[in-house]
Amino acid sequence: MIALSGPLWLIGCGNMGGAMLDRWIADGVDPAAITVITRTPRAVPAGVTHAITPPAGRPAIVVLAVKPQQLDIVAPDLAPAIAGAPLLISILAGVEEAALARRFDVGTIVRAMPNLPVAIGQGVVALHSHGQDADARAIAEALMQPLGLVEWIDDAALFDAVTALSGCGPGFVFRFIDALAAAGTALGLPADQAQRLAIATVQGSATMASGTDVPPATLADRVASPGGSTRQGLNVLDEGDALKQLLGATLAASERRNAEMAAAARGDA
Fold first, then answer.
1. Full-model pTM
2. How far are the Cα atoms of 189, 201, 253 from residue 198, in angstroms, in the given order?
3. What is the DSSP letter of 6?
4. Is the pLDDT of residue 2 over 80?
5. Which strands form 8-11's sheet, in the order they lie side by side?
6. What contacts 24+ positions apart, CB below 8 Å, involve 37-41?
């Protein structure tokens, strides 16, 4: 159970912000300690306060969960309301700590990159901060723990890469599942059955990979008997490192977009 150090303001409550909020409530955070601030009315869990504009009083924790493109829409009204707040956690993809510090006068800024499976407590959350306040960092980590795997990233320069891998990764995995099911359908399986088989196959394989110290590449080789059908399929994926090349290009495209958004937040573009 998370013990908050004071009032928590959640700025923005879309898919990701809403998923985080639900997990915090499920983990025992007192709903009365949370205020959700959105520009339009929104339903919130029982006991949580909703506001259109920042209320009176200063929060102990601010979680910034708007779209990156909305940063300079919310900043003018938000900045004076949270001035002096001990902790700001931002989940804005591509918005660097320095860009946030120019807009908000707060104690410690922590960048967080959660991914969509945080909604079921099986997500990944990457954290980075230049701040050295151990208490603030501990509070940020504790807030993320109910969401899934939490990893601190030491080098801020790697945050775009982490965002591309784990932040955007669920989208790529969903696309892979869809393609796997479509391939099964092309072989004659009913579409709904192929989808169920594809989802269960990926789910079981991921669970197996997470429960062993053996690298996934080794697991793949263990499944593939010499001259067998799995090996024939792997030969297609492995020829010319086709799958690695495809995913490398996919992540590189996402990383470039993160860098573009960071440049826009810095005012470079």
1. 0.87
2. 11, 5, 26
3. S
4. no
5. 49-51, 34-37, 8-11, 61-64, 87-90, 108-114, 123-128, 148-152
6. 37/9, 37/10, 37/11, 37/12, 37/78, 38/12, 38/13, 39/74
